[in-house]
């Protein structure tokens, strides 16, 4: 039995025992006559392991019987001798015995030990199984010079040797394997295991060089879809039917000659039908992952993308994300990197910040008592970053950085920009976008783009100081529907440039996921900073991801929890200890028997050792399963506690009082993705680890974020786009039908011309929308002189409160651009900029709300005017009446349908443009009337804070306060803010008007092209040329009309 177990562990497939000439062999698949056979060779005395051919395999902790099968093709005589098959006779088909299924938990070894916890559901054992082998005779059958003993299966017994065993009952009874050897001198096989994956051979059967995985690898694409209308079976069926309908239409339209003619109407229809047949409801939604350094953002993204170690973090746990990294989908097995570099102005701003950081540290050193420990540490880290960046960018340009402390900032930055210009030009010339065949190659290059490290051998200089953003294009399921995942530095990053870049990106993203450690989630300052930004910027779609949910200490958990939960944890700890104790007892006895040596073991000891081998395998699996259940229980209750506290803490930031919180473990996910070997599968199946990791739930949530927009796109496709093509084709068919005389044609042409002219006048309505919106903006009280004075006085009065603060606290706020928390403030986060703007914000809050309502009203009127134009155009069809209308009813109905479909699509397109405008307007409101770091007010105050920072020495405190107060009481800061506010609003309205007019003209042209099917003689000729083809198209349209109605009924 050990030999049978050994071979199974190595090959993980069906095992059949069958006679092969002079010796017994293991056959990998009895159904294949060409299968390679492996002789069973006991290990030499004293050498642990079992040898197959020349390959030795070592110890394994467990065994999985999920697909194990035994052949009953060995016959026995009354004396126990083998009866060989008759020569040239057909061998009977082997009878196969099926063991435990892979999805059934393996039972514990001895029921009396009571190893299972009270919550375990593993079955009890009623009767152990005994397999007996005995060596075959070497003298009669062995080949010359062969010294390899061979074995045969002599019996399979359950408990009592008199218990009858039937093949059908074997799988039900098997719970424990006892192994016996019938010959003392045969040697004792030990544990075996496939220690390493061997390369696959070209044969489809397992061999010594080939391992066949038992459990199939988890398929990400087969995971449960989100609970959304788009994924409902009926909707998905309707979508597939609609695409199939278009595929059928493509075949019909491509069966004739007209679609091959350049410029022909049918060619356009054919191309449109192909486009609709390949429809994919891919939308675009950006999800940002943001958090402090080292919390695991990159690891979470690796798991979501199902790419191990793709986005890397450093060995020390610090962040490797110094630029925004976007992950996009593309349908290729290759991976592509595209990088955006700084322009000259952006690079100059970055260098100015670094020079100031280097100089500021020296200022702090000059006043050693003028900073707190955290401030000093942050300043030192900012200087280290500056020094590292300068050395990377300007290698060989200087012997030391002392010149930064000696020369003015402007002179230093100008000199550095001269040095950097060569590198920028070089990057523009050679480009840095690359394509890779493997994820490892792409990951290595990505690290050189996004991490503060030395340049790679293929680069003339380090690239990361010049890169603003990196886009990665790869084939990942979570991206396949249009999601864009963005890895961002945290808002508490020491680099102001990176903080500002993160802030701007968050404002543009559709969803934000804040990443933090689970055990610190409820007090994580990084999480709080994101929600503070969300509050100021009125961002509602913010969720939390808690990492490291696998960090669980069972003893601490038992002490921390009380009552039933503590009792349950204790029971599970005891179950693990009991299983370990029994396993150690078995291993100790095995070690004692091994020390004796195989040659000195008596028959009873050999029997005992063989039994212990099987017991230790199953006990190892039992220990692993109990450990898993303990981890799962602790993780679950701890996750639930953290999720509940976070939801309560941040509920005011969610529109419906509930935020999405996920607890994930990348280690559990890795373990589940790698759980394919039989020993692992026997302990805990892969899906259990994956579910426990929380990554599957998070991936499902991310896909659900885009499901609503996919639903809208797919519904528009089935309800509007397909019927519109059908209506246009109907006009093409009627154009060549010959049912209209010249007078009737002239009548329909006249109506079509009138419709065309009427639609063109609608453009005038949209051409005035920018002016009307600008007029509404001018009514806001932004340029009221009295208000400007009041706002300036309010800002100055606020600064008088700060003047009373201790000089160290005041200086700390200046170094942090007016936003900070210190011991003096009770560690409460305060914002000078918000306090300085408070009067302005209060005065404009209600007027802004009224202004937004007026914008909606203006746009609504424009929509109604456009709709009215279409309705008037449709009314022109009513000019025909009586017999003439009846004769033209087919054409009129088709024209009506075309107009209505185009109208619907135009209104949807205009609505989408208004949504984009609203989002941009919201960002403008945040920039103008909030105190986020990149707002207009805060950017205007940056130079003031920089100037105050550089003050040092005697009287520096008074000079700092004078600088800040002087700037705040100057009305120009608010006057300039209002000017930029208005200028940017005018840019938005001009763009809205331009986009709306362009969209309107595109749709009107589409209507005109459809109407030309009625009045263009070339279309008549094209349609009349091939009567059979036209009739075929007509029949297809009749069938399609029925199918379209059925599909629309489903959605």
Automatic annotation (TrEMBL):
Low complexity composition-biased segments: 105-133
Region described as Disordered: 75-219, 362-384
Residues of the Dynamin N-terminal domain: 287-545
Ranges for domain DUF7605: 786-974
Entries under Pfam families matching the protein: DUF7605, Dynamin_N
Biased composition range(s): Polar residues: 134-153, 194-210
Annotated TM spans: none
InterPro entries cross-referenced by the UniProt entry: DUF7605, Dynamin_N, P-loop_NTPase
Protein name per its UniProtKB record: Nuclear GTPase SLIP-GC
């Amino acid at each position: 039995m050990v030999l049978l177990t050994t071979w199974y562990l190595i090959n993980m497939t069906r095992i059949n025992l069958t006679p092969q000439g002079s010796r017994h062999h293991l056959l990998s698949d009895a159904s294949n006559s060409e299968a390679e056979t492996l002789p069973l060779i006991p290990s030499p005395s004293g050498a642990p392991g079992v040898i197959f051919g020349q390959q030795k395999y070592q110890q394994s902790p467990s065994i999985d019987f999920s697909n194990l099968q035994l052949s009953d093709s060995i016959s026995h005589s009354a004396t126990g001798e083998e009866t060989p098959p008759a020569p040239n006779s057909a061998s009977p088909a082997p009878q196969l015995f099926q063991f435990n299924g892979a999805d059934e938990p393996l039972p514990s070894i001895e029921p009396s030990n009571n190893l299972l916890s009270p919550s375990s559901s593993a079955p009890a054992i009623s009767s152990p199984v005994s397999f007996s082998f005995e060596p075959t005779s070497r003298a009669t059958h062995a080949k010359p010079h062969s010294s390899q003993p061979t074995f045969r299966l002599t019996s399979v017994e359950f408990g009592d040797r008199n218990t009858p065993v039937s093949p059908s009952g074997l799988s039900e009874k098997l719970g424990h394997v006892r192994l016996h050897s019938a010959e003392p001198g045969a040697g004792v096989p030990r544990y075996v295991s496939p220690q390493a994956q061997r390369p696959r051979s070209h044969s489809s059967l397992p061999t010594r060089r080939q391992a066949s995985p038992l459990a199939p690898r988890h398929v990400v694409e087969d995971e449960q879809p989100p609970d959304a209308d788009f994924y409902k079976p009926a909707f998905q069926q309707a979508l597939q039917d609609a695409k199939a309908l278009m595929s059928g239409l493509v075949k019909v339209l491509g069966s004739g000659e007209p679609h091959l003619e350049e410029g022909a109407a049918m060619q356009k229809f054919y191309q449109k039908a192909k486009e609709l047949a390949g429809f994919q409801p891919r939308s675009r939604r950006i999800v940002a992952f943001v958090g402090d350094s080292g919390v695991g953002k990159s690891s979470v993204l690796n798991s979501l993308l199902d790419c191990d170690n793709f986005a890397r973090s450093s060995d020390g746990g610090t962040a490797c994300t110094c630029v925004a990294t976007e992950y996009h989908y593309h349908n290729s097995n290759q991976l592509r990197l595209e990088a955006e570099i700084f322009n000259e102005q952006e690079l100059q701003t970055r260098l100015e910040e670094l020079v100031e950081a280097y100089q500021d540290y020296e200022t702090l050193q000059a006043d050693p008592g003028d900073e707190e420990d955290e401030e000093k540490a942050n300043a030192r880290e900012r200087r280290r970053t500056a020094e590292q960046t300068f050395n990377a960018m300007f290698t060989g340009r200087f012997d030391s950085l002392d010149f930064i402390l000696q020369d003015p900032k402007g002179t230093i930055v100008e000199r550095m920009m001269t040095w950097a210009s060569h590198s920028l030009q070089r990057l523009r010339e050679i480009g840095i976008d690359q394509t890779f065949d493997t994820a490892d190659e792409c990951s290595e290059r990505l690290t050189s783009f996004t991490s503060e490290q030395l340049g790679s051998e293929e680069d003339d200089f380090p690239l990361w100081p010049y890169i603003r953003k990196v886009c990665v294009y790869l084939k990942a399921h979570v991206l396949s529907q249009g999601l864009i995942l963005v890895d961002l530095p945290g808002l508490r990053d020491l680099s102001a440039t990176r903080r500002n870049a993160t802030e701007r990106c968050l404002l543009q993203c559709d969803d934000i996921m804040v990443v933090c450690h689970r055990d610190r989630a409820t007090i994580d300052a990084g999480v709080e900073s994101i929600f503070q930004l969300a509050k100021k910027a009125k961002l509602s779609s913010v969720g939390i991801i808690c990492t490291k949910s696998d960090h669980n200490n069972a003893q601490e958990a038992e002490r921390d929890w009380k009552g039933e939960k503590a009792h349950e944890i204790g029971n599970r700890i005891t179950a693990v200890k009991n299983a370990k104790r029994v396993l150690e007892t078995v291993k100790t006895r095995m070690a004692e028997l091994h020390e004796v040596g195989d040659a000195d073991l008596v028959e009873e000891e050999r029997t005992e050792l063989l039994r212990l081998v099987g017991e230790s395998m199953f006990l190892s699996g039992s220990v692993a399963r109990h450990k898993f259940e303990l981890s799962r229980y602790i993780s679950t209750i701890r996750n639930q506690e953290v999720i509940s506290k976070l939801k309560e803490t941040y509920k005011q930031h969610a529109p419906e009082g509930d935020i999405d919180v996920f607890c994930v473990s990348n280690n559990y996910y890795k373990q589940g993705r790698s759980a394919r070997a039989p020993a692992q599968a026997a302990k805990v199946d892969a899906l259990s680890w994956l579910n426990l990791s929380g990554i599957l739930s998070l991936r499902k949530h991310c896909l659900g974020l885009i499901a609503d927009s996919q639903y809208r796109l797919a519904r528009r496709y089935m309800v509007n786009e397909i019927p519109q093509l059908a209506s246009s084709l109907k006009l093409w068919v009627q154009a060549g039908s010959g049912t209209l005389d010249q007078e009737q044609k002239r009548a329909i042409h006249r109506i079509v011309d009138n419709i065309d002219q009427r639609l063109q006048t609608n453009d005038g309505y949209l051409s005035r929308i920018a002016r009307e919106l600008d007029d509404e903006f001018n009514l806001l009280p932004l340029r009221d002189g009295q208000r400007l004075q009041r706002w300036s006085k309010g800002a100055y009065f606020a600064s008088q409160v700060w003047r009373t603060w201790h000089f160290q606290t005041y200086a700390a706020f200046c170094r942090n651009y007016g936003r900070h928390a210190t011991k003096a403030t009770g560690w409460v986060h305060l914002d000078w900029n918000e306090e300085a703007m408070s009067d302005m914000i209060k005065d404009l809050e209600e007027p802004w709300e009224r202004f937004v309502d007026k914008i909606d009203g203006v746009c609504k009127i424009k929509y109604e005017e456009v709709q009215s134009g279409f309705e008037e155009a449709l009314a022109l069809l009513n000019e025909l009446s009586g017999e003439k209308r009846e004769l033209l009813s087919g054409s009129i109905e088709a024209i009506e349908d075309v107009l209505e479909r185009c109208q619907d699509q135009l209104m949807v397109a205009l609505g989408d443009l208004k949504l984009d405008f609203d989002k941009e307007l919201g960002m403008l409101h945040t920039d103008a009337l909030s105190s986020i770091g990149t707002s207009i007010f805060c950017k205007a105050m940056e130079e003031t804070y920089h100037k105050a920072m550089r003050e040092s020495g005697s009287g520096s405190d008074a000079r700092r306060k004078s600088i800040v107060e002087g700037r705040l009481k100057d009305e120009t800061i608010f006057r300039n803010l209002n000017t930029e506010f208005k200028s940017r609003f005018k840019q938005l309205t001009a763009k809205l008007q331009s986009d709306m007019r362009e969209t309107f003209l595109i749709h009107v042209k589409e209507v005109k092209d459809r109407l030309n099917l009625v009045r263009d003689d070339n279309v008549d000729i094209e349609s009349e040329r091939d009567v059979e083809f036209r009739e075929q198209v007509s029949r297809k349209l009749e069938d399609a009309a029925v199918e379209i109605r059925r599909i629309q009924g489903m959605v």
